[in-house]
């Protein structure tokens, strides 16, 4: 099947979507990105993604003006062109192309890259799955709140997780849990939810923000604070959230079984409530 991407101002065949070898995203990870999920061809949490996109561009001083309506139109057209029902839209904005130099020039033009990927989501139905995770040292840079493509530390951690037949790697910084390679981490203890506060130590996840709203509406207890690996192991429930993982329970971490290997009630409740936000639209 012919697949299309969007590069700068044109829809092109996916195999022809290329950037210059001196693109700063390629050479310096001088680039930001977003991943927007869609279900039944409807974009999920689009407004939140646009808000974070603007934040990342501003923090890195990349001179790209976000036109929300234009991006939405491009996203929807790619979904239709690629004949997809469920999946993700990947958007990347690089600072642009210039002769290799650590210091960037002010007049270079950003590159815009957008394409789609087919994906099957882990929904809270009869096939809802709890996953395994490992813990891994957090080796990332200190501005994790910016969604950059500087993901080598995440790659190494995720590769180790896969090597150990796990789904995700939960990252540890000085005995404290920050997040996972591509998701935010939550624990439940005595019916209270705990997750790391949104600061420069973690990425402010889009699904994290949506789940926080659900928690508030349903009058569940939430404490945004850091927690230790010991608290992680001793939690009653553990789950992760992200645009691609939605709400995914974690039932084993390293050698520690969580909740006797079963999906917890609060994890299931939140997964169901979040999925209902777009499944029933």
Task: Please characterize this protein's 3D structure.
The structure is a single chain. With 281 residues, the protein is an alpha+beta fold. It has two domains: 4-118, Aminotransferase class 4, branched-chain amino acid transferase, N-terminal domain (D-amino Acid Aminotransferase, Chain A, domain 1), CATH 3.30.470; 131-279, D-amino Acid Aminotransferase, subunit A, domain 2 (D-amino Acid Aminotransferase, Chain A, domain 2, Alpha-Beta Barrel), CATH 3.20.10. Helices cover 28% and strands 30% of the residues. The protein is built from seven helices and 16 strands. The strands form two sheets. Strands 7, 8, 9, 10, 11, 12, 13, 14, 15 and 16 form a ten-stranded mixed sheet that branches. A six-stranded antiparallel sheet has the order 2-1-6-5-3-4. A hairpin with a 2-residue loop joins β1 (4-7) and β2. The radius of gyration is 19 Å and the shape is globular. The model has no long low-confidence stretch (mean pLDDT 97).
């Amino acid at each position: 099947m012919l697949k299309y991407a969007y590069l700068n101002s044109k829809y092109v065949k996916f195999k022809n979507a290329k950037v210059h070898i001196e693109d700063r995203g390629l050479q310096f990870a001088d680039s930001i990105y977003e991943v927007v999920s869609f279900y039944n061809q409807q974009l999920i949490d689009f407004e939140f993604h646009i808000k974070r996109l603007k934040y990342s561009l501003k923090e890195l001083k990349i001179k790209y003006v976000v036109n929300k309506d234009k991006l939405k139109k491009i996203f929807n057209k790619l979904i239709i062109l690629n004949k997809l029902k469920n999946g993700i839209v990947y958007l990347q904005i690089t600072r642009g192309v210039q002769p290799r130099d650590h210091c960037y020039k002010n007049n270079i033009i950003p590159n815009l890259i957008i394409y789609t990927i087919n994906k099957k989501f882990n929904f809270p139905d009869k096939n809802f799955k709890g996953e395994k995770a490992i813990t891994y040292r957090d080796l990332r840079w200190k501005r994790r709140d910016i969604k950059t493509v500087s993901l080598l530390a995440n790659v190494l951690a995720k590769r180790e997780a896969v090597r150990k037949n796990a789904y995700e790697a939960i990252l540890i910084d000085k005995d404290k849990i920050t997040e996972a390679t591509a998701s935010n981490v939550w624990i439940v203890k005595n019916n209270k939810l705990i997750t790391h506060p949104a600061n420069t130590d973690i990425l402010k996840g889009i699904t994290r923000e949506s789940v926080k709203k659900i928690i508030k509406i349903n009058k569940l207890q939430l404490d945004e604070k850091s927690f230790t690996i010991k608290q992680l192991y001793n939690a009653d429930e553990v789950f992760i959230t992200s645009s691609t993982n939605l709400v995914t329970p974690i039932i084993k971490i390293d050698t520690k079984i969580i909740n006797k290997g079963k999906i917890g009630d609060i994890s299931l409740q939140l997964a169901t409530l979040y999925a209902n936000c777009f499944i029933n639209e």
